[in-house]
Amino acid sequence: MIKLISAVIALILFNAFTSFSQKHTLLLKSGTYTIESESDLNWTFSESINNRFYRIIAFDNIPSEKVKIDLAKAGIQLMDYLPTNSFFASISTDVDWSVLVDATVLPIADAYKLSHLLSIKEYPHWTLFGEDQIELEASYFEELSYANVEKQILSIGGQIVAKNTPQHTLNVRLNLSNINSLYALNAFYYFDVLPSESVPENGNARSNHRSNTLWTENSDGLKYNGTGITIMMQDDGIIGPHIDYTGRIDQSNCSGCSTSAANTHGDHVSGTITGAGNLNPANRGMAHGADLLVYGSGNGNFNSVPSLYDNQGLTITSKSYSNGCNSGYTSLARQLDEQIYDRPSLIHVFSAGNNGTSACSPNDYGAGATWGNITGGHKMGKNVMTVGNLTRFDALANSSSRGPATDGRIKPDICGVGTSVVSTGPNNDYFSSTGTSMSCPGVAGVLAQLYEGYKDLNGGVNPESALIKASILNTAEDLGNPGPDFKFGWGRINARRAFDLISTNQYLSATISQGDNNNHQIAIPAGVSEMRIMVYWTDKEGSTNANPALVNDINMVVTDPAMISYDPWVLDHTPANVDLTAVRTVDNLNNMEQVTLVNPAAGNYSVDLNGFAIPQGPQKYYLVYYFVRDEITVTYPVGGEGIETGASSTVRWDAPVGTDNFTIEYSTDNGTSWSTAGTALPDRRYYNWSTPNIVSGLAKVRVTRNFISDVCDTVFTLINVPNNLQFGWICPDSSNITWDAVTGATSYEVSMLGLKYMDSIGTTTATNYTVQIGAAVNAWFSVRALGLDNARGERAIAIEKGTNEYNCSSSSPIAAFSIDCPAAGTGHCFSLSDLSINATVGTNYTWYFPGGTPATSTDQNPVVCYDTPGEYDVAMVVDNGFAIDSIYTTNAVYVEYTSQLPYFEGFENQTDFVNNDQWSTLNPSNNQAFTVSSDAALSGNKSAKLRNYVQGGNFEDELISGPVDLSTLSSSDIMTLTFRYSYRKRTEANDEWLKVFITKSCEDTWVQRKTIHGVGLSPIVSSTEWFPSSDEDWTTVHMTNVTSNYFVGDFRFKFEFESDGGNNFYLDDINLYQGAPSDDIVLGLNELEISNALLYPNPTDGELNVEFYLNSAETTQLTIQDVTGKQLSSFSVAGNSGKNLAFIDVNTLSSGVYFLRINVEGVSRQMRFVIQ
Q1: Which run of H or of E encompasses 977?
Q2: 3-class DSSP assignment, residue 223
Q3: Can you list the domains of the chain with their CATH numbers?
Q4: Burial code of 826-840, b = ≥16 C-beta within 10 A, e = fewer?
Q5: What is the Cα–Cα distance from 948 to 953, expressed in whole angstroms?
Q6: Longest dimension (CA), the chain
Q7: CB neighbours of 362 closer than 8 A, spacing ≥ 6?
Q8: Averages of pLDDT over each 10 residues, the chain, 1172 residues
Q9: If you ran DSSP here, which 8-state letter would residue 612 be given?
Q10: How buried is residue 1147: exposed, middle or buried, by Cβ count under 10 Å (0-12/13-18/19+)?
Q11: Whole-angstrom distance between the N-terminal and C-terminal Cα of the chain?
């Protein structure tokens, strides 16, 4: 009672100083409300929770930080901001109202809490259950506990279906007739329909991004899935296991990363970028052909980017981690801008952040809690791509961070779907997640598709990221305020339009210097609804002291045929005006400017670019332009898809702004007849279509507005997915898959996981299929339905066949095994795996390894080592208690000679690469392979040659080394691989590639470590067949990225040459040595001062002649070693300048392979010989 009396006294005082307060406006999703100036300070104990109650406080002006502190001391804690100048407030029951001035206090009306759809009582079908049940998402005040809100829900008969404690939201189900009681609960401040239908997917993100138009399921459509593009993802640790990544991820640089099962963020992000949908095709990522490099989240990993770009073809990075909130143009932002400026094909993609309703303390932008909250740092870079979060229906997620950048530049750059995205999780699972962490990888994946598309159109050359970024920004679906804004940036990414701009060459590039005026003419055709012109440049990295960060400033003006000039769209970044629509004026903040015109007259438009301030010039720029025509383009389905009958599928299309509804129709007979599916409002570019219960291979969709229509490019299929996949049996020699029949199916296609994707392995008219793959082999399988008129449904969710028998009776064992490496060096111990059939629990094993260590083993999967090169037999005996079986394999293991450090190869002792234990070649096209040649050499008389001059383009040839022992090195050592090559182009157009790969052993994958191509390989053209004739014709390459995880006993390297109809290629003087690159260490025969070294006769049966040449008189040490490296004899000779000949008696040595090492002043040469 005392508190109530105090509140009445406070109310009298409060009314005295608020009687002249201004009216306020609340801009909410449910509508716009005008608030009178009188405050309502009444409250009751029944509405208090933990001695606090909740109100909205509307201020005449946004309160300062000092005022907020004073209010908090008085018991008034301001929470989420509401436009305009208003806040939710948590108020103590001991509140001191006297500190509150120039403000109005009002209860939180039920109407204020509702989304737009709830306010107009429109309940999507996926929110309704049974006859009178609805499920909504309810947001409660952050300071309340789950126990507080659960009590209120139960009090009205509601049921909590799901909870998201970190986001302070619940999914609540209750009777629709009781919905107003839910709205009245004072613990909750917002209610919305469920964010998506019951099966939200990446499929929705792909179609909303128009990514699906770049990778189509029909034979005549585009096929860009990011193949050949390498993406670096930095996240929370090791990802997987998951079959959606099969064959396309490299986690070798994440050796110190977390392996905790709780770290699933990186799994989800990676699947959105590049998941193949092998397990569930509905959850395929954007770029399911791209290769992914997995790194930890430390910003230090950015230091690896230049090397990865130069040597491994990296072009795109994706990172969904914060780096401070509104932190400004930091040193990391500068570093990343510099990387892109120096390596023009590189692009960094970042999440904008999930601080959309939070001010950045202490870096408050000053515009209220919903502005200036980009979470970086690095995301403030000028040349990077920062991505906001949309729902699949293009609504901005409440949590998506807003711009401006600290200096007022436009951020985010672009938006993508990041709400309720389903993607990969550990252990072959999927889960749904929301945030800009999900929209960022979606955009990164689309970038990979566009990169691949550009390369396909431009001879395999990577695009500059400036062109790709400009194309994306200029063709984005405009959302929010017209033109750019600080919520959506330039809009939602539209992959179809961006590729259309690139593929039709609607761009140009040039450079500009200080004070220059460049003019470009663009012809605008008739029938254009909107013209978009943008200038974009990769700006020089700015100083961290500077504000703004822009270095080079280009200003653009566009003049139409009537001589009317148009400035670009510019936003007012002052805190009070950040939500205003862009106006035409001069832009001196951003490194992109756009001019648009609605319904422009046809004719030539003049684009004038002024080098207003170019202190670091000249500055290259791209001018891109796009025409939005008065037409409709259906973007999903486009044809070839398999869509289920009697289900919901979202039809999507592109069209210019209009005022009339769209009509959506479908046909199941290839367009002979049409049925109406429904209508969509003028601002919609999607329709949730309930597909008919009709099976058809001739389905089409048509969208029409005002007699303008478009039909999907070709037919798609309506047929259901097979259900209830399972194994009928799994036996030692075969497995049987079964499934339920699908209505309308005439047959079924069975697929199995291959090297990267689910590959078709057969068809059947039955509802089961037997594969000749027994229990010992792990595998994944799926099935799709096929029907009349080439109907082809979507694959079912794949099922895994484990390695245990199922539905099989006991039988005799069948002994079988595999070896990890059929051939390896002496530094490798061989792992053998039991593949025996009917080897049940309790089976006994006996292994025999003649010449190996151990000589026998009773392990199921033993490991054996060999000290001496040669071929070795393996025997295995299996006893399962029912019967015994054995297997004896002759020459099962081949132990290769292993080279030691320092390593040198000048090919002087090589005759050819056939049956050579130190080198092998791979020539898959049976064209010109690498050979040992005496045509040319930098040192000595021989080199490895690829006679590329006489073969056409598009061939790959490999020269592969034998094993080299690097196990003697410590992890802190530096290893350098050096080689010399000679090459010339045949024509200017030749773009040939030399790639260098390394591996730990034959069981490990080859990892690319060096790439040289085009003019980098040689800028010189020789139209005749190339033969190097001087030292100047050779190039030396030093590689220091043989990292410590490759310091093993079976290290190998290989050279891969990709031809394009060019000229001959030569290799010589290959070195591996410890230490940093040094031309003094790089060995060639002349530099060794040991040349023309010969051993004869070889093989020998008693006496060995050693012939070698020295450039000066030096004491020479001659040492004989066996294949294990053991020294057998050593003696010195007084070497003379010129030819030297030594005679060595080897009668005491038994038959076998040996090595002679010639050492002069610490520089050595090793040669192989055989005693018969």
Answers
A1: strand 975-983
A2: strand
A3: 2-108 (no CATH), 116-193 (3.30.70.80), 211-503 (3.40.50.200), 508-629 (2.60.120.380), 633-718 (2.60.40), 726-801 (2.60.40.10), 817-889 (2.60.40.10), 903-1083 (2.60.120.260), 1091-1171 (2.60.40.2550)
A4: bbbbbebebbbbbbe
A5: 9
A6: 120
A7: none
A8: 32 36 74 82 87 92 85 91 83 92 92 84 82 87 91 94 76 93 93 52 70 88 94 92 95 84 89 96 95 90 92 95 80 89 97 88 82 90 96 91 94 94 92 90 97 96 98 97 96 96 97 94 96 97 76 95 98 95 96 97 97 88 97 96 95 94 97 96 95 97 96 96 94 90 97 96 95 91 97 96 82 86 83 87 91 93 91 92 87 88 89 85 82 89 89 84 89 86 90 91 83 86 91 82 86 91 92 70 41 76 75 79 81 68 78 83 75 83
A9: E
A10: exposed
A11: 113
Nearest to 962 by CA among 1052, 1048, 829, 1056: 1052
**Which residues 6+ apart lie within 8 Å of 197 measured at CB?**
124, 126, 648, 688
Nearest one of 952, 1050, 1046, 1054 to 997, comparing CA atoms: 1054
Locate the DSSP E strands across 849-942.
856-857, 863-864, 870-879, 884-896, 903-905, 919-922, 930-933
Q: Hey, what amino acid is at 351?
A: S
CA nearest to 655, candidates 494, 511, 769: 494
Backbone angles phi and psi of 68, in degrees to 5:
-60, -40
Report the C-alpha gap between 1074 and 974 in whole angstroms: 6
Q: Which residues pair with 718 in a beta bridge?
A: 643, 696
Chain-centre distance of CA 278, in angstroms? 17
What H or E segment, with its residue span, contains residue 204? Answer: helix 202-208
Return d(Cα 664, Cα 223) in angstroms, integer: 27
Strands of 844-900, DSSP E: 844-848, 856-857, 863-864, 870-879, 884-896
Three-state DSSP class for 224? coil
Q: Does residue 63 have a cis peptide bond before it, meaning omega lies within 30 degrees of 0?
A: no
CA distances in angstroms from 249 to 13, 312, 1042, listed in the order given: 68, 13, 19
CA–CA gap between residue 397 and residue 421 (Å, rounded): 12
Q: Which residue bears the tokens 């990544």?
A: 245
Strands 249-250 and 291-295: parallel
CB atoms within 10 A of CB 1032: 8
Residue (of 1103, 1080, 1091) closest to 1171 by Cα position: 1103
Alpha carbon 633 to chain centroid, angstroms: 28
- pTM assigned to the model: 0.61
Q: Which tokens in the block code for residue 193?
A: 């329909």
Residues 6+ apart with CB under 8 A from 262: none
- Residue for token pair 């809100």: 149
Q: Starting from the edge strand earliest in sequence, which strands make up the sheet with 817-819, in order?
A: 817-819, 830-834, 863-864
Q: Work out the burial of residue 659: count CB atoms within 10 Å of its CB; fewer than 13 is exposed, 13-18 middle, 19 or more buried.
A: exposed
Provide the token pair at 835. 């593949």
Beta bridge partners of 730: 735, 806
Contact call for residues 234 and 319 (beta carbons, < 8 A): yes
* Token representation of residue 635: 């973007």
Give SS3 for 594.
strand
Give the C-alpha separation, 538 to 552, whole Å.
9
3 state DSSP class of 159? strand
819 and 793 in contact (C-beta within 8 Å)?
A: no
Residue 626 amino acid letter: Y
Bridge partners for 634 per DSSP? 653
Q: Which amino acid is at 806?
A: Y
Q: For position 1162, what pLDDT does the model report?
A: 63
Q: Looking up tokens 């530094």, which residue turns up?
A: 827
In whole angstroms, give the CA distance from residue 609 to residue 512: 8
Q: Which neighbouring-strand residues pair with 621? A: 510
